[in-house]
Every structure is written in C-alpha cells, then in structure tokens.
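cron nightly-structures :: item 1 of 1
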Amino acid sequence: MAEFWTGYAWPAIWIGLQVVAIIIPLLLCVAYLVYAERKVIAAIHLRRGPNVVGPYGLLQPIADGMKLFFKETVIPTGANRGVFIIAPVLTFTLALIAWAVIPVGDGLVIADINVGILYLFAISSLGVYGILMAGWASNSKYAFLGGLRSAAQMVSYEVSMGFIIISVLLVVGSLNLSDIVNAQRHIWFVIPLFPMAVIFFVSTLAETNRHPFDLPEAEAELVSGYNVEYSSMAFALFFLGEYANMILMSAMTTILFLGGWLPPFNVAPFTWIPGPIWFAAKIAFCLFIFLWVRATFPRYRYDQLMRLGWKVFLPISLAAVVIVGGVVLAFDIQSLVK
C-alpha cells in the first residue's frame, strides 16, 4: 500500500493540484478579461461600461455566467447533436491544455518538455476543428460559412506564425520554452526581431478571430457566424475558449519576444518583483493591445484579410527566416545568448 501511494497516487495528486492551480486562475482571468474589455472600450468611446452589478460593476461577469448557466440549451432540429455538443467542449479544452507547457516563472511549469513550442503550435492549430465542427453540425448556411472562413483564415496566418517561430528558434537553438526565455537575459527579442514581433502579434489577432480579423463572426454578413445556433453554456464555452486563446497567444508573445518572467532591467528594484508578476504584467499589456485594436480599427474585407496573410506576411516571414539564419550562422549568435 505504501508503494502504491509513493509510486502512483502522490505524483498523480501533485499533478492534479498543479492543473487546478493553473485552471482556476485562468478561468477567473477569462471572466474578468470580458469585464476589462467592456471597461476599456467604454473608456475609449467615452462611455461608462458595466457599473451596476456590484461595486464598479465587478460582479457583472459572475451575473453573466449565472445567466448563461441557467438558460436552456437549444439544439436545432436538423443539427448533428453529437458533433454540435462536442465542438464547444473541444474548443474550450484545447485552450486549457496548452497551458501545460507554459512557464510562468523560473521552474514554474507543469511539463517542462524539450519540444514545448511544437506542442503549443500543434494545440493552437487544432483549435480550428472545433469551429469547423460547430459550423457544419449547426445545419445553418451562416454557421457553415463562418466555419469555412475561420478554417481559411487560421491556416493562412499559421504559416507566417510558424516561420516567425522558426526565426526565434534559430537564435535560441532550442525548442524548450524556458530556454527561449533564458536566452533573453541580456536583451528581449522584441528589439532585434521587432518586425517579426509585430507580424506575430497581428497574426495572433487573426488566429483568435479578433478584431479587425473577426470575419468568421461578422454580424453584418453571417449573423454572428459559426456560433449563431448556440445558446446557454454551449455558447459560453465558445466565448470562454476565445478569451482563453487570447490569454494563451499573449503568453506566447511574452515568451517569444518579451522575455517571459524576466524583468526589463536586471537591477533593483526590478529584480525584487517575482517572475510570475512580470509574466502576468506582460500578458496584461498584450491583452490591452487586443482590446485597444478592437475599439479602434474597422473590420477588414475578406479579400484584404487573405491578401495580407499570403502576399505580405508570408514573404516577409520567409525572408526573415533566411536573414536571421544567415546572421546567426555568420556571427555565432547562439553562443552569445547561452
């Protein structure tokens, strides 16, 4: 019995506690990211935003969650019931399991695997399946068109994102996310690789179907797109999955270009602040830009969206791989960052 607890039970319990320690704060962050979005956009538009439910409207996300939880789940008559229900669950689950390899601090990671960046890229690529399944299973032309748009959009921008990630990996010489962060001890990659950082962040906007690239959810043409037939908690799972993906993409941007948990200057008082606080602050900065962009820019036309991905971002990111690879080889950059 003692061998059972030592060999199997306690490690499993410890991993379970780590998972809970990641998921619960993440869900709270998702809920209050919605509140922050409404407040930021209201401030930009000179409005007040949520201010009735609780002090300063802080209980608004809880009220919205309870409303969606107690509403009836309506499944259209012609829908494929199994796929219709699985689609939002898949989208939400993929947004959570990607956090298994995200290092929030030095050594603070559930699975410190050597191919962490490939794991992240694979999980983010699978997200399109939930949206495609929802669009097809809803048996609605608007939902189906939204699913097709999302598939084309995510595939288009994942190509340039992949090339940019390759350029970062050429500099670091490792696929481990902790190694990528530690390679930025002297200088964050956003400075020498600034054009790639901008393209990567804009691609994350398209990858998460956020404004100005929210064509799969275009209300004017598609009446909300792939999730038009969803209600109650099924709709809430799509909603939560989208915002969890926003936080995930901000974390990827932070790790690849903003030094992860490292402070901006390696001197006091910056070094007194714990690494996870710096990591959270950088994610919050990236998320603020997400919200700022939504409140500021008009939506792209679909042909403009495809042209930007294939005719602008793809050639630039491909050229970046060649240039960065040449510079790394000529000046032995990897020995400098290690």
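cron nightly-structures :: done
The radius of gyration is 21 Å.
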